[in-house]
Amino acid sequence: MAKKNAFYAQSGGVTAVINASACGVIETARNHKDKIGKVYAGRNGIIGALTEDLIDTTKESAKAIAALRTTPSGAFGSCRFKLKSLEQNKREYERLIEVFKAHNIGYFFYNGGGDSADTCYKVSQLSETMGYPVQAIHVPKTVDNDLPITDCCPGFGSVAKYIAVSTLEASFDVRSMAKTSTKVFVLEVMGRHAGWIAAAGGLAEEQGIPVVILFPEIEFDQKKFLAKVSAMVEKHGYCSVVVSEGCHYPDGKFLAEQGTRDAFGHAQLGGAAPVVANMVKEALGHKFHWAVADYLQRAARHIASKTDVEQAYALGKSAVELALKGQNAVMPTVERISDKPYKWKVGVAPLSKVANVEKFMPRNFITPDGFGITEKCRAYLTPLIKGEDYPPYKDGLPQYVQLKNIAVAKKLAEFKI
Amino acid sequence: MAKKNAFYAQSGGVTAVINASACGVIETARNHKDKIGKVYAGRNGIIGALTEDLIDTTKESAKAIAALRTTPSGAFGSCRFKLKSLEQNKREYERLIEVFKAHNIGYFFYNGGGDSADTCYKVSQLSETMGYPVQAIHVPKTVDNDLPITDCCPGFGSVAKYIAVSTLEASFDVRSMAKTSTKVFVLEVMGRHAGWIAAAGGLAEEQGIPVVILFPEIEFDQKKFLAKVSAMVEKHGYCSVVVSEGCHYPDGKFLAEQGTRDAFGHAQLGGAAPVVANMVKEALGHKFHWAVADYLQRAARHIASKTDVEQAYALGKSAVELALKGQNAVMPTVERISDKPYKWKVGVAPLSKVANVEKFMPRNFITPDGFGITEKCRAYLTPLIKGEDYPPYKDGLPQYVQLKNIAVAKKLAEFKI
């Protein structure tokens, strides 16, 4: 096998640990210099490939690459851009091949969620459909935890830990205030269709906190919800509500919509928390506080889960190893061996079975009344938030690395997306 | 001096480190058993004194009390309740004396902010006005950092660290997304009248982040604000906005009001972030994300500042020492000796000069354009967020202590507030 270069890019919403996967990919490739040439990173995801805006990662020191492991966000820039099908947009695929050829790229590592798995799958078919030999491996990443086959997705464990810790802390706060002031605290969390992140708020129950969860998987029933909150406040003097941004009425209408849509056509949500809080105030008269975690939750590297960081790195590493074994159109996965003690290993899934499939919370992870998590869910979640993996600090702030991101000289004509 | 018992209570909004002050008070009192009898904590602040709902802290193990140092929120419950003046409500003062007498209380430690300092000051005058000998010492606590005389207030350093870290992390996130998606991230922070918390967001600039800050001290000018954001996005491709909940128009109207008021008559705010975000979207067309940190910021013991924890403990300890020296109507303070290296010592302030005085950001801590912090402000803030002081964890969650909070047997008739 002639020595080829590799392309790596980050896609979709970034996470606290996507750079740990980048670290895994780059460090592993550097350990196989006999087989893999340079790793070129796409500036802003696949757009970097289309526009020939490649970053030469060989210009970064070993120390800088190692520091990616403790740095949140996408070090090379991410994008929200989904390749159309070959029939709909042959021009873009031809351009990709042109860029790959110009820079001798034979490996394509794409680090993203469901939509990105679809892009990666399309690229993996280029050998067959367009006659250009490229091995495309998807590195899973999504805070939403909604990819199929893999037991969990890198990025999720850390956001789950953030939400569990934040729910616990804010609940301690509202409990302190409940006698004369705030009785209900509402936290809005991410998760358009799947309630995995919201479920993590339920882990605060471990320490006796009354938590009411509003999942996207359960149609919102205002009357039942208010009765639940009322009962909780009656019993405990206070309660916390964790509401998923994707929580919706039976007709599909979200509790709150900002009205804007992202590049994939998804509604951009936000603002369910104040809606829920006001509902409680009007019906029950309880004073409330609400928070919307938004980016804070998925960027919170300072409270990342050790399990998550290790898995993010391991799957980046495995992606390169799968490529070296000649694989194409696959994604390394987390396979759970046991809950307690938590044991897992790296598996592999065909991209054809990953792309465009969403994994929702199983109904038996949600309590019969629809407002809490079951023991089964708790057993699933707990290992994923386990362990702390603190970044280094200087003068009170985490020392996150910023790469030089030096561009590779362009060889081709400009391309308009 | 005959041996008297002590009363300790927590008041107002709780913080990540108010329990560290409680720990300082109780551990120090336990070290002076020859002079101080039992420490009784008021359940839910001063309300516990009025209703004779006292918690016997001697029932708690040394281990449990030590764990208060790493536990956020108010372990004995807090309250939003301000004593009226003696002329307006003599009945409550008489009741306090009745309870103090019944339980042989000679020391009154009140842990709170500006309103609580006023309550503490009123109690300190009971010796003179009502002939009952009691020494009242105020232990400062407020995330708002708006108490006078003291260089800073316990509780502030940790919320400042949380906001600085969160702004940094979310800004890394928006920078990753800016090419094809979100360009402006808006974070709403606490601070009704003083912009200290918002200022902490400016510390993210240390790592090259473009941050626009909206202070309550600077009247909001929409045109200037939008021009600033536009220039930042033009230059950096993205920017972060940190908006104080107290940010308001020249006529005093807040950017967003929920319309409800707390027990002190303050408007309960929230929702400035979506207002600002939509403003940016409409005027500049930039895609946005927004977060409201609310309780998450002041409860975030997981990312507490070491400086803050140490000061919170030290001032609790000093309060007891001041009492043992026979002082009354005072508050221990932080006196800064130098910025770099950061050195400080405990000072003391008369409560007559603390009660009902608010300390705002000096104008020279804010840049001339009103949207940033100066080097002077940075030199002030940096030592306050310095150092990490992580709580212990188990199964991925911080192990926060929950006390037994056993009530002292009542001796008096019921009292209606």
TrEMBL record, chains A, B:
The site annotation (Important for catalytic activity and substrate specificity) covers 115
Q: How is its activity regulated?
A: Non-allosteric.
UniProt cross-references to Pfam families, sorted A to Z: PFK
Positions binding diphosphate in this chain are 13
> GO terms for biological process?
fructose 6-phosphate metabolic process
Which pathway is it part of?
Answer: Carbohydrate degradation; glycolysis; D-glyceraldehyde 3-phosphate and glycerone phosphate from D-glucose: step 3/4
The active site lies at 144
Question: Which Gene Ontology CC terms are recorded?
Answer: cytoplasm
What keywords would UniProt list here?
Answer: Cytoplasm, Glycolysis, Kinase, Magnesium, Metal-binding, Transferase
Where does the record place the Phosphofructokinase domain?
A: 9-322
Output the PANTHER family linked to this UniProt entry. ATP-DEPENDENT 6-PHOSPHOFRUCTOKINASE 1
Biological function: Catalyzes the phosphorylation of D-fructose 6-phosphate, the first committing step of glycolysis. Uses inorganic phosphate (PPi) as phosphoryl donor instead of ATP like common ATP-dependent phosphofructokinases (ATP-PFKs), which renders the reaction reversible, and can thus function both in glycolysis and gluconeogenesis. Consistently, PPi-PFK can replace the enzymes of both the forward (ATP-PFK) and reverse (fructose-bisphosphatase (FBPase)) reactions.
Q: What is the name listed in the Swiss-Prot or TrEMBL entry for this protein? A: Pyrophosphate--fructose 6-phosphate 1-phosphotransferase
UniProt source species: Sideroxydans lithotrophicus (strain ES-1)
